[in-house]
Amino acid sequence: MLTNLPNMLTLSRIAAIPVLLGLLYFHDPLNRWISLGLFALAAITDFFDGYLARHRNQVSALGRFLDPIADKLLVASLIVMLVALGDVRGLVVFPAIVILAREILVSGLREFLAEIKEPLPVSKLAKWKTAIQMVALGFLIVGTEAGPSFLPMELLGDAGIWIAAILTLITGYDYLARGLKHMS
């Protein structure tokens, strides 16, 4: 199970995190672009691990367990690193915190619902939120210093984080409302 392609893709996403963060630590424009490439590959594996698992009939309990953890580790560690480096600052820290808090809330909710064998499927709006969030994080990875001068990388990243945070609040509320029905 651990060595099937979908699970290997999920594990590669987790393995990419320290490399991605290490590259970001050094404020070199080339490292920023390499980080963006690595982040894009990691984000793409999020689509392909599930797609391949379903189409190859390799859906596994391990994959269902690891996939959301890999997603949350990637996003959370990247947000924390961008805040620590000052790439996310000022009022933009608040939507970043909203995104992190929602990830923790949904993880806990899914864990609770799993105990009572009640699934909490991902909504279409949550998929849109993830896509916008990933694009925004990509802009913030490259940043103003490494990005092309004609693109306001920081502004695009900041705006994307705010939009993702708004969608995060909506989807988080939706998930919580659905989960609370099973708690009484």
User: DSSP helix count?
Assistant: 6
Main beta sheet strand tally, sense and closure: none
CATH architecture: Up-down Bundle
Query: In the CATH scheme, what's the topology name?
Result: Four Helix Bundle (Hemerythrin (Met), subunit A)
Helix content: over 70%
Strand portion, in percent?
under 5%
- How many domains? 1
What does the average pLDDT come to? 91
Tell me about this structure.
It is a single chain. With 184 residues, the chain is mainly α. The protein has a single domain, classed as Four Helix Bundle (Hemerythrin (Met), subunit A). It is built from 6 helices and no strands. The protein has helices at 5-25, 29-55, 61-85, 93-115, 124-146, 153-180. Helix 1 packs antiparallel against helix 2 and helix 2 packs antiparallel against helix 5 (124-146). The termini are far apart.
Give a quick rundown of the structure.
The chain has helices at 5-25, 29-55, 61-85, 93-115, 124-146, 153-180. It has 6 helices and no strands.
